[in-house]
Each structure stands twice: as structure tokens, then as C-alpha cells.
Amino acid sequence: MTMQNQSQSPWGKKKGPPTPEDLIAALLKKIKDSFEGGGDEGNPSRPGGTGEAMGFGAGVAKVLSVVGALLVLNILASSFYTIAPGERGVILRLGRIQSVAEPGLNFKLPLVDSLIKVDVETVRKEEFGFRTKSPGQKTVYEKAGFKAESLVLTGDKNVIDVEWIVQYKVQDPINFLFKVKDTAQAVRDVSEKAIRRVLGNQDFDYSLQNREVIEMSMVKDLQKTLDSYESGIKIVTVKLQDVNPPEAVKPAFNEVNEADQDMKRLVNEAEENYNRVIPKAKGSAKQILEEAHGYATERVNLAKGETTRFLNILEEYKGAKDVTRRRMYLETMQKVLPKVEAVYVVDGGQPSILPLLDLGKTIPQASAKPAVSQ
Amino acid sequence: MQKVIRTAVVGLVCVLALTAWNSFYVVPEGFQAVVTQFGAPIGEPVVVAGPHLKTPFIQEVTFFDKKILIWDGDPNQIPTKDKTFVYVDVTARWRISNALVFLQAVKTEARAQTILDDVVDSTVRDMVNKNNLVEMIRSSDWIMSEGAGTRGDEEPIVMGRDKLTDVIHKTASESMVKYGIELVDVMFKRVNYIDTVQGKVFERMISERKRIAAEKRSQGEGQKAEILGKVDRELRNITSSARQEAEQIKGKADAEAARIYADAFNKDPEFYTFFKTLESYEQTIGSNTRLVVPSDSEFYRYLNALQ
Fold it and tell me: Cα dihedral sign for A123, A129, A133, A134?
């Protein structure tokens, strides 16, 4: 049996300090030995009742000593404890606060000291108006059924739908443990009071647009109340998640947004019209001016040209008035007469011919008519 | 004999140990204790945590919480003074301030909650009844917001939420003293309209938004019309001033031309007339022209001469 036990351990007796398994194995062996030894002694000799009692008593004593040793060991082991970073250990000696243990390995008196660990670093969170159902990459929220929590009356007696979170941590572990029962519920209650107090002081429209102001005044309000309880809680932050009009009113709000867009669209349309018309008109105005300038230049130039020609001819005409006159007249007739359709020569003494002329008719008819009537 | 003595010794040790164990008790941090002897309280309540002595066996110790406890009222439907039905959810913090009185008058925390239900709820009901809704919404330090007066539906507040809860707190506190209970504070956790009223409020909010939307649309139309008007005005302005300038330029040029003509033609008006007449014949007499010439005119004479 012994050999078997030892052979199971590959290191044998070379190892200096015994491992817990070795210790237990040794203890078990001792206990077995003591019982077996007693039996061995009793069976062959059978010395009588006293001998048996003595053997039994010795056995009980041995068991008790082993149990005692175990107990002492356990107690000694339990008087050492570690406090993780971000934790504090509150030590109570017979129910009374003794000390607060910092992170690391610590010692407490066995039996009379008890330890309560408090996490002072982790930021705790309370959610209002929604609950996180399953956190993850795409966190699922549950939003239905928290209307009583999230609907808040604003100062102008309107209703607003708010979802928010409050983050806090333990600042004073002793106060946190012993001053307020159910601190989480206290934080919830005070938060609900605080948001209604803050929003109750503001108009609806203001509340929709000024989240930071609300958050800041809530932190102040919350901290003040929780301090008055000596709750040992420090508010880290208050974050408004969603500040919305209530579901039933949302379409009307969207309509306002649409109207806003419409307004901008109408103005844009008008400005588009302006931009389309006015620059073009400015261009046309310039065109008119340019044309006027062109006309002016042309007019003056023509006048100058014409007069120059006239003056030149006049110069020549002065030299030989009569001849020039005749020549000019004849030249003109030469040019004009071939183009003319008909020439009527009317005698000064016969004025009656004029009414017969049908000036409105076309040429062939006009020329035919006088022929018929005459 | 030895056996008997041993048993007796063991028994005695046990009894002594039990007596010693029973003669002291530990009050944990955050708790307080009242020592009673056959039901009758002995001495003052023990509020200091730690080990304490007592008479073994005949004295009993009852422990009570020393922490601040929560009471949460049942949400109640209460009409306000201005006849609006609201749900009021009130919560309070309380603690056992006198454990002795508490033990005698209340005994358990559960019963304390019931007493708080009765006292605080009725006080709240009273105060809500006597006040307008705004008193529960706005704080005592609420200041009328800018532009609030223009809507005309602003009611000045008399007390405000803080003072109202103060009054409730004070009134309820007075009747809690006899139970050994101290009310730390009372607060309106939630004040909401009841469903039917809420529907009406939503309708009002919707109509308000519709009004704003209509205003915005009309504003847009107005601005558009204004801009279009501006377009028309500027267009007329640009075109007409261009015309004006153009006419001026043309007029000046005409005048200039006239001056040039006059200067030249004044040198021999008679020849000019002749010259111009010939020129105009050339230009005015075209292919569709019938010429009527009096026989005694100069033209005829010339024509005859040519023939």
C-alpha cells in the first residue's frame, strides 16, 4: 500500500516540501494505520475491555488531533486574503468596522474578523426607458413597456420621451455598505426624480435641443441628493440616449421638419429663378448698350462719309455747275427708268385721268383696265 | 465513578461555555439592536456596532436595520386642483430612528411599509388635490423662460415641486415620529398624465406642430414671392436703364450726325437739294413702281428730250 502510493508519485521522496496531496495521503495512511494497528493488537491477545477501550480512546484522540490540525490549518489559511486591484476590503471585527484593506495580500484575525470586498473601480450603470437585452457587437435593446419611466412632463405641460443612463461608482466603500439599503434602487429613484425636476423646469423645445445642459444639471442634482444620504456613491456621468417627442406626436414633428425643408426649397426655387434671369438680363442690357454704341458710330461715320462725298462733288460742281447738273440728272434717269414698270405722263390740262388709275390693283390688271374703260 | 465525574465535568464545561456564549451578542455594522427581557425592553437601543454584554438566557436581542430604507408608493390617480388627472408615483427614504419605539409600535419592516403607505399616500393625495399641475412639474426656483409670455398660457407657480415635497415630507414626518421612524425625504418619482388626458395632450401637441409647419410653409411662400418680385424689379430696372442709356447714346450720335450734315450741306443748300433728290430717286424708285409725271414738270421735259 505504501509502496503503491509512493510509486504513483514520480518524484518520490526527493522533493523537499510536501505537496498538499502528499500531506493528505500521509494523513490517510496514518489514520488507517492507527485503526489497523488497534485491530491487530486487539485480535491476537484479547486482553479485555480496558485494553479495547484504551485502544479505542487512542484512536479517537488521533482522529480529533487530525481534525484539529486541519481546522487550525484552514483558519490560518483563511486569515490571509488578497484584494484585487480596483477593490477594497472592509474588515469587520465582531461586526464593527476595523479597517479598509488596500489591494494586495492582507492578513486578518481568524474567527473574529470578517471581510467584505467592495468593487470601487467598476462603473455601474442604470438604464432608464430601455434595458440592454444582450450586449454585444450589435447590442439588442428592449424598449417596449418602459413608457411610465421614459415619459416626462416638461415645464410647458408637454410630454417628452427620454431614455437615459446613469453611471456611478463606489467612492466610499464603508458608506456604500452600511448607509443605504439597496443603493441601486436609490440611484434609480433619485435619477427619475432628478430628470423630472430638470425637464420640469424647461420648455419642450429647449429640452429637445439642450442635452448637455440637462445632463450636467442632472449630475449635480443626483450627486447632491446621494451625498445627503451619505451613500458613498459618485456619479460618473449621466447620458441622455434618446430625447424624442412621444410616438404619437412624432409624425407631426416630422411634418414640421418637412415644412422646414419645403420652406428652404421654395426659397431655393426663387433664387434659382433670380439667378437664371438677372445675369442674363444684365448681359442683354450690355448688348443693348453695345448696339447703341454701334449705331452711334455707324451714324456718325455715315454722316461723315456722306458729307465728305457731297463736299467733294460740291467742289467739282462749283467749277462747272450746269454741265455737272445735267450729267447727274441724266445718269440718275438712266439708272432709274429701266427699273420702272410703267410711266404715265399726265398733261397739266387733263386732270381727269387720275381717278381712273387703280393704284390698288396689280400691274397687269391696272394696265388692262384703263385700256378697256377708255 | 471516574466515568461519572468525567461526564459531570464535561457537562459543566459545556454549560459554562453556553452561558458565556449567551451572555454577549454582536451588533453588525449597519444594524441596531434592542434588548428585551421577557418581552420588556431593557435600556436604550444599542446603535454601536460590535460585541455587547447581556444577561444570558433571559434577555433577548432584536436587530433592526440602521441603513436608509426605501419606501415606494403605489402609483395613484389623483385629480389636481385644476382638474387634471395625473398618475403620481411617490417614493421616500426612511430609517428607524428609534428602535425601541419601533419595536413597540411597529415590530417589523413590512408593517412599517404599510404604515408609510397609509400616511404618505394620504398626505400626497391631499397636497396634489390642493395644487395645480404646474406646481408638481416645475421647481420652486423655476424662472419664466424667455418668450414664454408670448404664448400667454404661462401660469405663475406658488410653491413648486421642491416646496410641495417639503410640505409633504414635513407633514408625514410629524405623524411618523410615534412609530420611531424618520422620513429622510419624500420625492415625486413620476408625475404623468393618465391615458385619456395624455391623448388630449398629444392632440394639442400635434396641432401645435401643425401650426408651426403651416407657418413655415407660408414663410417659404412669402420669401419666394419676395424674391420673385425682386427679380421682376431688377429685371425692369436693368432693361430700362440700358434702354435709357442706349437712347442717349443714339441721340447724341444723331445730333452729331445732324451737325455734320448741316455743316456740309449749308455750304450749298440748293445743290444739296438737287443732289439729294437724285439720290432719293435712285433709292425709292424700284421695279414695282409706276411713275406718274405731269407733262409740264421738269422731269417730263427731260424725259421728252431724251426720247
Answer: negative
